[in-house]
Amino acid sequence: MTDLLWDDVKCFFDLDLMGPLPDVRVPDASVEEWQSVLDLVAEKGWNCQYSEGETVLPVPRAEAVLSRPADAECPDLRVWPTADVLAIFSFHAADEIDFDVDLRELQGQDRLDVLCGFLREIGRRLGKPVLMDPEGDYGHPVLGFDVEADRVVLFADAQVM
Questions:
Q1: Is the whole-model pTM more than 0.90?
Q2: Shortest CA distance to 59 belongs to which of 69, 71, 49, 74?
Q3: pLDDT tens digits for range 76-105
Q4: Sign of the alpha-carbon dihedral angle for 26, 46, 92, 105
Q5: DSSP string, 13-38
């Protein structure tokens, strides 16, 4: 199922316009919802790698990751929904699930469909929007999973870009 057409949204995948690593987020999250995302990764069988600094470790429970000391290094979870598309989750705060995607990996309709499917899976699991902001432009989503529409939609006008 195609949520968005590449020709309609390719401007939002321009590295100069969006930055190479746009920010994807689920606002107003909880530790339980972080755990739900970790469970989803395991259930879907997506390849993943959890690390703290240079040390690769088994994926812990969300509560353990999010209760680490304030001065501890921020761990990350790399998730590959397909072999050639990577999402990097950063455990900055319990109240927002955030991850980066690399626009260099998301060129063309096939890759766009992978991204939309990934956002849709997370959004459906949590029953919440999953929003993609340009890198460094927090709070101005251009696209994301819309709960009521049950699909990924554009939030910004391509003509404005």
A1: yes
A2: 49
A3: 999 999 999 999 999 999 999 999 999 999
A4: negative
A5: G-HHHH-SS-EEEESS--HHHHHHHH
Q: Give residues with Cβ within 8 angstroms of 154, minimum separation 6.
A: 4, 8, 9, 12, 142, 143
Token pair 């790698």 is found at: 49
Cβ–Cβ < 8 Å for 39, 110:
no
Do 4 and 89 meet the contact criterion of CB atoms below 8 Å apart? no
Q: What is the arrangement of strands in the sheet containing 55-57, beginning at the earlier edge strand?
A: 55-57, 47-52, 76-82, 85-93, 96-101, 23-26, 130-133, 143-146, 151-154
